[in-house]
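G., the chain you wanted modeled:
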Amino acid sequence: MPDRIEQAKRALRADLRERRQIVSSQTRDAAEAGIKEQLDALVDRLGARSISCFLSTPTEPGTHAFVTAAVARGIRVLLPITREDGLLDWSVATPETEIAEGLFGLPEPVGDVLGPIAVNDVDLLVIPAAAVDRHGMRLGWGRGYFDKTLGSMEKCPPVYAVIFDSEFVDDVPRDVHDQPVTGVVTPTRTIALASHHA
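Predicted structure as tokens:
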């Protein structure tokens, strides 16, 4: 049956990707400001001093303003770097961090590279998603990097996926290797979900 699941995921991803393409620049700017506000509050609530956060692409709800502000506040922020083998390396964000195009054309940091286990030290993971359902199941973009990362962590801290409000849905197709998240952050709210990390 995995083929049916895979087809359902592909169809949903295509639909979500298309919807993200047509978001206006004003909506994008407002989304980035909203995401920053929500993530700042989440970091404060959790007392997180070390976090991981992805660098958003132009069509994702923006995370760059949040990362810049978190670094300025003295929070240690690890940024992901994709590897050929399906794992993620990490780099510590600094005010001078340069951004370049990574393996899949994603924005990634240029700097000292830490191995995949560096993420085991964080208090909070902020990850991308195409959609998340009410049970905490996350639909990613199909490369499996974050599912692998979450699945390999000995003690997983809270994991929040960043999505637009419309991408918090009733159900997403799921496979055995798909990892749930603790909650979602949208431009207007932060929702904690019941999952095995909560």
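Residues 111 and 167 are 33 Å apart (CA to CA).

Shout if anything looks off.
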